[in-house]
Input
Amino acid sequence: MTITPVFGDFLGPASKHIAAAVSSRGELPFDAQCGVVGQLDRLVTTLARYLGDLHDEPTLAPRPERNAGTRNAAARLALGRAGQSLHQAAAGVASADAGQAHPVVGHLSAAADYLAAGRDLLQTHFFVDPAGARTGASYWTPVITSGPVTAALLGELAGYAQDLAPWIARLSGARRVGWDKLTSAQLALRSAEPWLQLAGTAIQAAQRAHYPLPARSLLAAIPANAPPPRRPPIPGEPVHELCERIALTAERLRYAAFTLADRSRWPAATSASWRRDALASAITSHGSELILRALAERAGQLSLEADFQAQLHTAACGMARAWKTWCAVTDRWDIVTTGHPRGARPTPVAIEIGDLALQTGRLAYRNPHWTPAYGNASLIRDPAGLAESPSDVITVLAAVHQAADAISRIATADHAAVLDAAADNLLYLPTRLLPDKYDIPHPYAQAPRAYAGALLAAYDTAIDAATHVTTALDDLAAAANAPSSVLAAVRRAATPTEHGQRRQQDQRPTSQPRVLAPLPGRTEQALAKLKIRDPALLLRAAVIDQAACDLVAQAKAAARSRDIVAGPASRLSPAVRHDGDRPSCVASQDIGTARAAQLIKPHPDTITPGTSPGRSHPVTPGRTRRFTR
Amino acid sequence: MPTTSDLEARLRQASSLPEALDAGFDAFEAIRMTARDCQDQVPELFAAFVMAADAAVDGREALTPAPSLPHAIGTEPGSAGTARADASQVADALAALAAVLRDRLTDAAAVADTPDDRAACQDAAEAAGRICQLMTR
Output
């Protein structure tokens, strides 16, 4: 089984290697000292890049107090200064492999490697488009940029800096030893040490001041942005393997739902795909209800806590409501359609969501070869057969939680796509299903407002039910410390600003994360002229200089924006507006879904002949009576 | 309200492509409505009935743009007359109807003159085959 690496796979070993390195007490031979300088240079550079990433990531506006990125400027500057000292010394070492054989150097080298790999992993959740805009590339992006996870990361970085600083102070020789008695490597370390110490303090201050609740476990759980490979269902799998498979399918669906969020619009996706998603959601939720009821019964048999039993029962009731609301959506899709364009293929979500329904069914029913077909119908699993022990109860609960979470995300993406289709008048009815009084010589008629509104209202209700039951399962998973409890943490970390953040990310130009090795600014130069060498004062000066630079850059950007706004009128002409800028599109992201139907563009209250998908005019009678393919 | 037997007879008696398409459209719609009526009766058969209804929508949508499908002439399709039957009997009736539908549409595809008619019949026959598979005990 392929396991996707997570950030913790790199963070943990990096911490251990740093701890092992700083536990070294003895004096190091010169060769090893040079090696330490070289590896510390790499380490400090990587730490600075982490901080640079935080700086470059979009803030979670409008809550400036959560913006750690701009508040760790002092730490970045301090690391930059430490790196400057180390880098110059490292460059002077004859061989890049100096001292590699020494265990301490090896530990530092490994720590630098792990931290660099961990940063690469985090970067897979972002991409930069050719215009330089930095955009989220996965559903984890809002988690990575969230306050608690940023706090956890800052905490780790601060810890490293604070562990390393006193150690290199020892390495660089006792303070009473004169500069002339030190080796070049010791000189570099002595020069870097106060900056590293300051960096650690500054990072920790940023973390403590703004992020009182770090979420280290969530940080460690961040996976590489790569969906696990598909594992089609195999008949006859035991319960625990089915649960693993459900978690894997759910993860793939979460990735697909995010990736397709901007591409699930018509014509890339049609009503056939959305209908299939709703159908699979109904079957999965139906099976999940049966599983939760069996778990509640089993929890009673195993004398698990009464509260836990009650929560399972409540979740089962919520799931019953959920599948009924999904049936209401499929009922609406029975009539409404985007047409049947030849060659239209189901979306990846629509292809794979059937796997989730099948796997959930095999968990709910006794027949290990269960399929939805009558011929494979089966009695519901015996509770003891579903979960023998209390830990099995939690394993199965986690599988249901995974499925519900994936369905919830898909529902949100599909709803947005259907809302767009409705706003663009792309929903139709087959005219043959209309009462006789309508004599329309076309195969389809545009769906009246009431039909589109009813479909969207059905989605509203289904999403509400799905959210409700997912929240109940979040609580259950957290209470039981189920493996899926990370989903609840992900949702809590990402929910408040996910949507707004994505838009903000799309608009925001960015620079590559950089390691600061700035030239001294005016204030710092002034201190240098006064022979001030106190790192704290120099750092304050550097921060002031950096703030001045930032202010000037901000003012320049504002001036550019003003010029653009005041520029030729053609800049704002509709001809050059992007589709995504349409008021209806933008507004549809901001308003509650219940009001969505009112946003639909001028729309028939009565039935009118349809236009073909892909055409802007009604189908010509006599020429063709069907959709263009 | 036509019975499944009525619909089967109509499919068998269709002597031209438009008649076959017309009867096929109504048969899919009848299957859809009947399956929806039954989907909540037995939990163990929920998935079978909802998927059958979905396949019926696929079949109906496949036929809708067929050039030879006649314009509706006042015969609103309705649920097949199986209201008093239990879920097993309904499934049997739908499986039988779907089998006839699949065979008739496969035949129609073979004689269709235009590629669009042929493709519509083939897609609809495939959907009928799925219904048959879902409803067969």
